[in-house]
């Protein structure tokens, strides 16, 4: 029986939440087929066997590689997929996952389905949004191995009571090594991983006005800051915070869009958020058509009041 390989992603030695979602998706497939889920960490890291077992992994292999390397991770994953008789390889569609996924497919001489938001375990058909989310494409890989990357926040860890068996595996070092990663988010969570996102647009008027958004984010524990492309292009915020078609895709519990008009390219990155709150002085701004709650007014007046009220609730 063919198994399923999940390539995990770690940051500073810790597993990223999206990897647990990929393991959960693999579990769904494995249960439908009666096979095993093998999780592979391509760099040295601390593994919580109970956490990965609960997410859906039967076995965890941890590489002895000291640093991340996209070509090294892909070569090791392709080798393991063959050795462990895996006909499905899953990754997260993160920035790093997008780098590694096509390399694995090329090494296995197969195709891949990128950035998937759903999959049918019985037909192995994956669904991925295209044209900024305006259409959904159904993809089936015809090669002997199916490689796919899964968009974060669209799949869930299995949540079962089981522990995974952990062992180490020796892997050849890659050619391109990542020697350092520096966080540019000022201690806040990554916008793609946070459960709450406070996002600002051109309506903020200047980089200095971001203090208003920061205060709002501070009043919401665990909140990340996001931005529209107009803001990033103006140099007010870093690209790492950009949400949308050419930025990051987010699907938090709460997305607060402040001074953002709601262009299709921005919506493509946040339209799957559970609750969307829009603050805009233009009652006809397109963002209101997608918002769960809308506040029409000047953000300079609304934000201080909203922040104060949220602080009271959190206290
Ligand atoms: C190929 C391509 C890719 C793109 N990718 C992305 C992407 O990834 N992400 C992205 O965001 N965009 C992207 N864009 C750009 C997108 O089309 C929009 O131009 C951009 O999203 C607009 O940003 P904005 O909403 O901040 O600005 P605007 O559209 O200028 O909207 C500003 C809003 O602020 C409101 N406002 C102004 N002052 C106040 C105030 N005092 N109080 C309250 N509200 C106020 C206005 O009413 C307005 O609705 C892309 C475009 C292209 C062509």
Please explain how this structure is put together.
The protein is of the alpha/beta class and 315 residues long. It folds into two domains: 3-169, HUPs (Rossmann fold, 3-Layer(aba) Sandwich); 196-314, TPP-binding domain (Rossmann fold), CATH 3.40.50. It is built from eight helices and 17 strands. It has helices spanning 17-33, 49-55, 70-83, 95-107, 210-218, 229-233, 264-270, 299-314; strands at residues 3-7, 10-11, 14-15, 37-41, 59-63, 86-92, 112-116, 118-120, 125-130, 135-139, 146-150, 165-169, 196-200, 223-227, 254-258, 275-280, 293-296. The strands form four sheets. The protein has a seven-stranded parallel beta sheet with strand order 7-11-6-1-4-5-12, sandwiched between helices. It has a five-stranded parallel beta sheet with strand order 14-13-15-16-17. A three-stranded antiparallel beta sheet has the order 8-9-10, with no helix packed on it. Helix 3 (70-83) packs across helix 4 and helix 5 (210-218) runs parallel beside helix 8. The protein binds flavin-adenine dinucleotide. The site of flavin-adenine dinucleotide (FAD) has 27 residues, from helix 6, helix 7 and helix 8.
Give a short overview:
With about 325 residues, this protein is of the alpha/beta class. It folds into 2 domains: about 5-170, HUPs (Rossmann fold); about 195-315, Rossmann fold, CATH 3.40.50.1220. It is about 30% helix and about 25% strand.
Strand content: 25-35%
Shape, per Cα inertia axes: elongated
Low-confidence stretches: none
| Helicity level | 25-40%
> SS-based structural class?
alpha/beta
Mean pLDDT: 94
Under CATH, the topology of the largest domain can be stated as: Rossmann fold
Distance between the termini: 54 Å
Count of the domains: 2
How many distinct beta strands? 17
Give the second-level CATH assignment, the architecture of the largest domain. 3-Layer(aba) Sandwich
Largest sheet: 7 strands, parallel
Distinct helical segment count:
8
With strands numbered from the N-terminus, the spatial order across the biggest sheet is: 7-11-6-1-4-5-12
Give the radius of gyration. Answer: 21 Å
Helix and strand succession?
EEEHEHEHEHEEEEEEEHEHEHEEH
Present as ligands are: flavin-adenine dinucleotide
CATH class of the largest domain: Alpha Beta
Q: Please identify which CATH superfamily of the largest domain we are dealing with.
A: HUPs
């Amino acid at each position: 029986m063919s198994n399923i390989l999940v390539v995990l992603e770690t940051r500073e030695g810790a597993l990223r939440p999206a990897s647990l979602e990929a393991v959960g998706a693999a579990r769904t497939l494995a249960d439908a087929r009666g096979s095993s889920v093998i999780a592979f960490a391509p760099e040295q890291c601390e593994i919580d066997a109970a956490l990965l077992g609960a997410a859906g992994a039967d076995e965890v292999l941890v590489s002895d590689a000291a640093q991340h390397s996209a070509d090294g991770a892909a070569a090791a994953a392709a080798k393991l997929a063959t050795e462990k008789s895996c006909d499905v390889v899953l990754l997260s569609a993160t920035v790093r996952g997008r780098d590694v996924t096509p390399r694995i497919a090329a090494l296995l001489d197969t195709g891949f389905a990128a950035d998937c938001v759903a999959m049918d375990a019985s037909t192995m058909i994956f669904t991925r949004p295209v044209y900024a989310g305006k259409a959904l494409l159904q993809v089936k890989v015809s090669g002997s191995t199916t490689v796919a990357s899964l968009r974060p926040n669209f799949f869930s860890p299995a949540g079962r009571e089981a522990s995974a068996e952990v062992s180490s595996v020796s892997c050849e070092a890659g050619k391109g090594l990542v020697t350092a990663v520096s966080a540019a988010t000022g201690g806040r969570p990554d916008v793609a991983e946070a459960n709450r996102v406070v996002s600002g647009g051109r309506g903020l008027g200047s980089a200095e006005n971001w203090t208003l958004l920061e205060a709002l984010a501070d009043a919401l524990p665990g909140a990340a800051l996001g931005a529209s492309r107009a803001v990033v292009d103006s140099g007010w915020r870093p690209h790492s915070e950009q949400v949308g078609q050419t930025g990051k895709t987010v699907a938090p519990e709460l997305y607060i869009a402040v001074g953002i008009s709601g262009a299709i390219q921005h919506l493509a990155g946040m339209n799957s958020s559970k609750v969307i709150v829009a603050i805009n002085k233009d009652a006809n701004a397109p963002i209101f058509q997608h918002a769960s709650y809308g506040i029409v007014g000047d953000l300079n007046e609304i934000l201080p009041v909203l922040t104060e009220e949220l602080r009271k609730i959190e206290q």
